[in-house]
Amino acid sequence: MAYPYRHEKETPMLSRGFGDPRTRTLEGWKELGGYTALEKALSGSREDVIEEVKASGLRGRGGAGFPTGVKWSFMPKEKKGPHYLCCNADESEPGTFKDRELLRWTPHQVIEGCLIAAYAMQAEHVYIYCRGEFFEATQILARAVEEAYEAGLIGTNILGTGADIELTVVAGAGAYICGEETALMNSLEGRRGLPRVKPPFPAAVGAFGRPTTINNVETLASVPHIINRGGAWYRGFGTEKSPGTKLFCVSGHVRRPGNYELPLGFPMMELINDVCGGLLPGRTLKAVIPGGSSVPIMSAEDCQTCTLDYEGVVECGSMLGCASVIVMDDTTNIVKQVRRMVDFYAHESCGQCTPCREGTQWLSRILVRIENGKGTEEDLDTLLELGDQMTGTTICVLSDSAAAPVASSIEKFRDDYLALIRRGERVGAA
Ligand SMILES: Cc1cc2nc3c(=O)[nH]c(=O)nc-3n(C[C@H](O)[C@H](O)[C@H](O)COP(=O)(O)O)c2cc1C
Q1: Which SS3 state, helix, strand or coil, does residue 327 take?
Q2: 181 in contact with ligand 1, CB cutoff 6 A
Q3: How far is the CA of 30 from the centre of ligand 1 (A)?
């Protein structure tokens, strides 16, 4: 088969230290060429670093896929006070488990990426905001930060270049909403994790009222490789519009779930059947959620020609999000799964915006009713109308995220809903 992506057969970059405890140490990371990218970046200009990242076409791995180099260039060129960088390690999207692995196995990869990014944006302080439950990962990261400080890689006059960058690891309290960049900044400042209205955007008014950039862990971990080997080399992986490799978190009904680093543009069915060993014997594919629970659900038919890049997944009716591929076979009760996701969003809603606070609870109540065989066909119309009113009407997109699986599952799996409504039948058990 001719693949729609380019793939040099090289060892993975981001995950090459996974499973090897030596890469947790400064010495082990240096054996793999660690911190040479930082040295290279610091010996050139800030603009050069931004241009290289722009040339690589790297897109943010936190979900939206915004071009990283372009985002960095939004920071003020003239520094009139502190600038900050926040590394978003809040990772709480159901189905997503990549950032914690980057932190657990390759903390120095993340630190190095943070330092390069901070240098490029003149950020004098980096905050790595970790999800509260990531106790082990946070401890490993904190040890690596200590080691890097002792080696003169963080702090004042880094590697004798005159660059001063401090780095602090911050543990959140375990709230999904604190992964949203403006809620993260509020939490960092010691306030409740409530999203802020934009504009002003963080590059103008961010943490502590100062210009700030927020990047995902995987985005920042990709940066040392781009600086070391060049943007053009990075473009040797992936597709024209979605360059590079990406960690795919595969969960659900496959034989070998896990994190897999693959070039963007990799065919979804090949990921499921070849990389993950396929479904259990006798099972057939029913549905896939390709990007974490907040993106539209896909039917088995949608998946057949889908390639896993930002554009490919949109063409097939969903979004790549953070590339968390949740696979569901024919034993799945779609209504139950959607209800569980909606319950998650209802629990995690910060309650600031009425459509989200009330809407997520309302969606959940209707879905429970249908699941218990007590729903009506009008309930489906109400779910869709509610979802409509919850989309694009709130400060952040948590509300949209709750509505997406509901609307798409009614569109793609209406018969499952109708079976429960008309005959009180359960469709699938899982
Ligand atoms: C409710 C909500 C939760 C989010 N959670 C995360 C998260 O845990 N990690 C993350 O990197 N981005 C998360 N995001 C996206 C961030 O707001 C932000 O776009 C991202 O960190 C930017 O990084 P990137 O440009 O490197 O992708 C979340 C967004 C929303 C609306």
Answers
A1: strand
A2: yes
A3: 30
For the cut 90, the answer to whether the pLDDT of residue 144 exceeds it is yes
Any idea what DSSP says for residue 196?
A: P
Question: Rounded to whole angstroms, how far apart are CA atoms 383 and 370?
Answer: 11
Residue 214, judged by CB atoms within 10 A of its CB (0-12, 13-18, 19+), counts as buried
Q: pLDDT-derived band of residue 423, with 50, 70 and 90 as boundaries? A: confident
Q: Give the model's pLDDT for residue 33.
A: 92
Which one is the CATH code of 245-329: 3.10.410.10, 3.10.20.600, 1.10.10.10, 3.30.200.20? 3.10.20.600
Residue from 53, 66, 88 whose mutation best tests the ligand 1 pocket (most atoms within 8 A of CB):
88
pLDDT, one tens digit per residue, over 314-334 is 999 999 999 999 999 999 999
Interval 343-401: pLDDT, tens:
999 999 999 999 999 999 999 999 999 999 999 999 999 999 999 999 999 999 999 99
Q: What torsion, rounded to 10 degrees, do the Cα atoms 136, 141, 142, 148 define?
A: 160
Query: Ligand 1 pocket check: which of 180, 213, 223, 264 to mutate, most ligand atoms within 8 Å of Cβ?
Result: 180
Phi-psi region of 71 (alpha: psi -120 to 50; beta: other; left: phi over 0): alpha
Q: Is the pTM of this model over 0.85?
A: yes
Give yes or no for residue 235 having a pLDDT over 70. yes
Helix axes 217-229, 107-120, angle to 10 degrees: 80
Which CATH entry fits the domain spanning 21-234: 1.10.150.120, 3.30.565.10, 3.40.50.11540, 3.20.20.80?
3.40.50.11540
Mean pLDDT, all residues of the chain = 94
DSSP string, 85-149: EEEEE---STT--SHHHHHHH-HHHHHHHHHHHHHHTT-SEEEEEE-TT-HHHHHHHHHHHHHHH
